[in-house]
Amino acid sequence: MSGSINTNLAALAALRSLQSTSSALTATEKRISTGYVVADALDNGAVFAIAQGIRTNQAGLGSVNTQLNVALGVVSVANQALTKVSDLLTDLRATLTSLSNQLNDSATQANYYAHYTEDISEITNNLNGASYGGVNLLGTSQNYGVIQDYIGNQLSLTAQFTNLTGAFSVIFQGGGAVTIQTGITGAQVAGSILYYSFGSVVASIGNSLNVIGNLSAHINNQITFNNGISDGLSQGLSALVDADLSQESASLQSLQIKQQLATQSLSIANQGPQVLLSLFR
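-> structure tokens emitted (281 positions)
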């Protein structure tokens, strides 16, 4: 190749090599500092868009599980109240059985009735107090919905005692003289309550416990499922955008050496015209 002071091809080649190496070094340093091979849309627009979609789904799953944990609290409180009511019904049955004994004198009946009304009051308090975050599934007809996955499917928290309230009213406020206000007036009435009403109340409580138990199991399973989906999304996201730091570290050292060599090559190439000038001395 002929020597020229107008066009220094060797210097141009060295400069291009230095620029390419410096660009690669900058990209490697970015991957090491961020931990991502695709940190933003400038690295790879298509992959970054996919990654952002995955991150949105992950955030949605986190929010969903937060709401499901609240729902789990609502169901757990309802379960505790129902279990207590079920226990109280056992005691209430014994009291009603004693009240139905026609051999009791008036003082004994009064004592049993006091016990009866105390159980009724405690049952009522348990039902009314089974609230979590302002939500009570007991003694109401209002159902509640909670989102169970990131695409928006709803899980219905079905209210209990919609029918049980009526069954209890037979015991609490039944017709004739059997009312809370006037009290139980005789052993016959207590026996009638046991025979006609009490069994349906126990059955309703059992049904509600079953519903609440199934809801609790469903919510726990859904939370576990969502966590599994989130883990899968994390694994997929990592494969898309995470940098291999051991590989990037090796690449960094290599590029640093190449940059030094390219700088030296450019310096040597820039001395070419000086060599040509020496021919005219």
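The chain has seven helices and two strands.
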